[in-house]
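Hi everyone,

Forwarding the result from last night's run.
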Amino acid sequence: MSEVVNLPKLSENIPRLGNRFSQWVGKTVLATLGWQFEGQFPDHKKMVIIVGPHTSNWDFVIGLAVVFSVRLKISFFGKHSIFIPPFRSLLVRWGGIPIERSKSHGVVSQMAEQVKQADKILLCGAPEGTRSKIFPWKTGFIQIAANANVPVFMIGFDYKAKIIKLGPIFLPSSDIQSEMLKVYDFYAKVHAKYPSQVAFPAETSIEK
């Protein structure tokens, strides 16, 4: 079994959840599967975190192990209809945020407002929004971060090197298309579980 090394250190600003047991579970899963961390976790109490490329259900397994191993409290949004008793309290505890897609002001505005109002929040999601091959990728996460004036932090799961890459962080401007090029350029250098399921623009610098 490989040993997980260089667990990123998290500052007191980062939302935390879990205990020693859940942390042990996360570290054990990563060690058993041979994964290691590369890079550092930024010191920001509010961030939009994107994880990719997303091509397999294994991404969820690795992601959950990462969350457990460093005891992160992440937030995610879901349809308000699933936030019903007896599941509502559990979903909220796990970081779920109910969103009404029928609202006229839209999901982006609702999520941006949630981020603005929170004292600490790590809003997580996959930029593709699906495991299937898709292009262009979704831009909602960029819009949420720009509207809420918080940075976007990119994390990549490199299956070839078995490295969890804690990548660049940037504060997005209102020029969504230009900001997306930063996203494509980073993830083009991350080896997905199924590379053929990932699409990038032609001008992206892809590392073979």
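The mean pLDDT is 84.

Cheers,
N.
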